[in-house]
Structure formats: C-alpha cells, structure tokens
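HOLO CASE FILE
Compound: flavin mononucleotide
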Amino acid sequence: MTSKLFSSFRLRGLDLANRIVVSPMAQYSAEDGNATPWHLMHLGNLAISGAGLLILEATSVNARARFSPGDLGLYSDENEEALAPIVDFCRRHGSAKLGIQLQHAGRKGSSGLAWHGQKPLSPKDGGWVPQSPDDIPYPGKPMPERMSVADIKSLIDDFVASARRADRLGFDLIELHGAHGYLLHNFLSPLSNQRDDDYGGSLDNRMRFVLEVFDAVRAAWPEEKPLGMRLSATDWAEGGWTLEDTVALAERLKARGCDYVTASSGGTVPGQEIPIGPGYQVPLAARVRQETGIPTMAIGLITEARQAEDILEAGQADLICLARAMLFNPRWPWHAALELGAEPAFPPQYERAHPAMRGGDFLTARQ
Ligand SMILES: Cc1cc2nc3c(=O)[nH]c(=O)nc-3n(C[C@H](O)[C@H](O)[C@H](O)COP(=O)(O)O)c2cc1C
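Model generated. Tokens follow.
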C-alpha cells in the first residue's frame, strides 16, 4: 500500500510532493533582520531534506515586531536582498517548496537570544518597547505599549508590505504566526487583551485584528499562492483562549480563503498545564479539521515515520509538521521514505548515499 505520508497534497495552486513540512524555527542568527551564512547552511540543508515544504522561521514585518535582535526580518530592501541568494540556493538544489512565516512578537518582543535565556532587553541594551493590544505585560517582561487603532492599521500595512516582498522573492506560501503568545495571539486571548474598543471584549472583537491582517495579506498575495495560519489552539489556562474559540476562528478563516491551520498551543502565560507527550497537540488539529473541514497541519513531538503515517491515516491532519526532529536528523524524510516503502528525494550530489547504491559497482566506475 502506498504511504500516505509520501502522497502528494495540493494547497490552492501549490502541489506538495509529500506531507512532510519543516516547521518554522527561529535561528536568532540574523543581523538587523538580514539573513546570514548560518541561514544558507540551515535552510540549504533542510531544502534538500526531502520534505515537501520548508517554512522559514518567524520573520518580522518591522524592526519593532522582532522577538529578539537576531530575528529574521522582511521589512527593508536590505532584508530582501540578503534573503534572495538563500532562496535561490534552496530552489536550485532543494526539492522542498518554500514558505515563510510572518510575525509580530507582540508583548514578548525585545527579548534576548534563545541561548541567552530570552531575558528582556532594555532599550539601553539594544532593545525596544514592545507593542501589544493592551498594557498587560507577559509575566517577567516589560510593560508593552498599548496599540492605538492607528498603530493597528499601520501594522496591517507592514504585513502587506512583507507579503509583497515574499512574493518578489518567489516564496510559494505564507503562514501568519498567530500562536505562542505573539501579537496575533495577544489579540485573541482574553488573558492579554482586555480592550474595550472594537478590538477587544467579545470573541468577534478579539478576532477582528487577526481577520483584518488575514484579509489584507490575502488581497496582496497572488491568488494561486496558499496562505495559512498557525494558531495556539488553546492557552491551556483558566480564562484563556480555548479550542472552541479556535474552531470558531478556523471557520471564519476558512470562509475567507485560508488554506490551512496549524494547531500549536500555549505561550500566553507561564505555568500552563500542558499534557506533554508524543503527538500531544494532534487532537487539536483533529478537532479543527473535523469540525470545520479546513486542512490542518499537526505539530508537536511527532518523531517517528509510523506515528506520522498513523496520524494521516486516522484523518487527524493533512500534513505533518516537524521541528526538533528535523534539527536532530535533517535526513528524517529519507529514513521515513525507506521505512514506509517510498523513494527519498535526493539531490544528485548525494544520490550515492541511497542504500541501493552501496554495492561495489560505483566504486570502480567513478571514484
Ligand atoms: C529552535 C526552534 C525555533 C522555533 N521557532 C519557531 C518559530 O519561528 N515559529 C513558530 O511558530 N514556532 C517555532 N518553534 C516551535 C516549533 O515550530 C514547533 O511548534 C515545536 O518545536 C514543537 O514541534 P516539535 O516537537 O516537532 O519540535 C521553534 C522551535 C524550535 C525548537
């Protein structure tokens, strides 16, 4: 029987060769938002991994939208120029289709690098004042600046400008980062948004900003290219954003032409009660898929080929997102293909690594 993980999948006008997606992973290695040689190594390696889709890390739509000073950006001509050769390399040598995740880090912005403990950075240490829907800080982080309606409108323009840059660079897909306690999620969760205007209060009002960003980017992004959204499907916290809210939002997103939802979770408050374990967020993707019919990506501690295959066979998700498993073993898709009876997609330079090519013939033929 043909493996489902290695069957193709179509998102709007984009054909993916298989269902493996490299999840966006911030590298904290950019300079003023500009990609560096680290990104060439990191993304080049993942582009030849055999995954069907590679989504670039959370990429900021303006300098203040960054989580850390090392975040990738797509808000200046310089940012665009720095990313261009990396995209070209991935296209030339890799088989993965290329997506990019657009972000604003919200009230978590202006933090130090991951390996420096993500401690808040003050403006005198090169940080900035983060923005948020409300003047409610993330515990342990500085007080954010509450966004005015003018700030909201101007930020939507920034998302659109970054989407246009992503199109010029030739990206196939955009994902909006609506998870992990970042700005879009800040608007959704009652724990971080207690505004009393059109952008806070009722569920409809808390969803307004996310839907406005979605509509504006959808209008600017070519019709045939997919646009998806990563959501924290639950805050895992009393009084927070819930799975029922996520289903309601996914329904609206789907009606507006959203191509998929990735069901991540958490990030709004520390001390969340997360039932961590293999595939712990898969039931969230399953529920969104079953209740709304929107394609979903499952993410979170999916590490085994058989596990990924079972999730797809059970109809819990349409695509399988992998983060840490791909850093640990960037050849994960090759191994999974062999285990599930499919053919890995090798670049020609590496094809002699295939177990079927390990006989003696090639050694005598060409050294
Ligand atoms: C190094 C690293 C960087 C990450 N950066 C991002 C990011 O930029 N955007 C995002 O939505 N999630 C990010 N995540 C979360 C992952 O995409 C993923 O949701 C999480 O690691 C769970 O999946 P896993 O068990 O396959 O690692 C990051 C995770 C890691 C390990």
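CASE NOTES: Residues 9-365 form a domain with the TIM Barrel fold (CATH 3.20.20.70). The CA atoms of residues 68 and 89 lie 26 Å apart.
CLOSED: yes
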